[in-house]
């Protein structure tokens, strides 16, 4: 989930990632309304089924086995892991300081928040509500790269990943020492490994896929049937990864995968048109949106006429893009001067 990664994928993969980012921001914009409106609660639940998992599935499109040498390992750490850590701590500290004034926190609370940034994972809230993604993504990359590099058999790789997934959905919550959650959300990697590994092999064998339109139609149809069942009869399936809220666990494995396949096929079919080109900036600024969406929503929700889900959703996407674009423009001008 680095800048180079999000821009190096084929156009149709970039479009799908943009849809995932839009869905994640939508979840955060609509969440305050979930207790008051059934429709809002349903929309929040059914987008959580696939938006976060989709990021990890797409992460598999950008990962490759690492040669069994110190030089290759060093290069993997320097190019893939260090940039994520730099964003995590750099943007995290900056947002905590900004949040101190926005939320009018005490300096004691702000200092504690900085310590929580080190521990990370599900302990992060407020402006860092999405920052658990960085560490879980990083750890998942390490595990999947290890599987691909040290185990040659795809069957054994998937056996390990499926076993990890089964373990990950077998408990409600797991702590560490005296903390309620594990550091960096490491236990969530038990689930995300299967999704990222599936993404790697999806990319590897994608061109062999036949009857794509049939699979896309079937996937979308099944998804909307499940959505209707959730709204009408309160289908007992929830998947909120950060909170480890998983109901009907066996569905957590296949629902994100078939939704991802359907979206990938649709975006591949539409990539040669210009209909979805407006999504490309969302992909290009994936990291700034993840970093700034929550604090943007929190700030503008204090203005009564802006405190509506669709407006907050739009602002949660557009404002980070504008800020990041201006920052990059200034940096480029300084470098050229």
Automatic annotation (TrEMBL):
Residues 12-325 form the Acyltransferase domain. GO terms for molecular function: acyltransferase activity, transferring groups other than amino-acyl groups. The chain crosses the membrane at residues 12-31, 43-63, 84-103, 130-151, 158-178, 184-202, 214-233, 253-273, 285-305, 311-331. InterPro entries: Acyl_transf_3_dom. Keywords: Acyltransferase, Membrane, Transferase, Transmembrane, Transmembrane helix. This is Acyltransferase family protein. It comes from Secundilactobacillus folii.
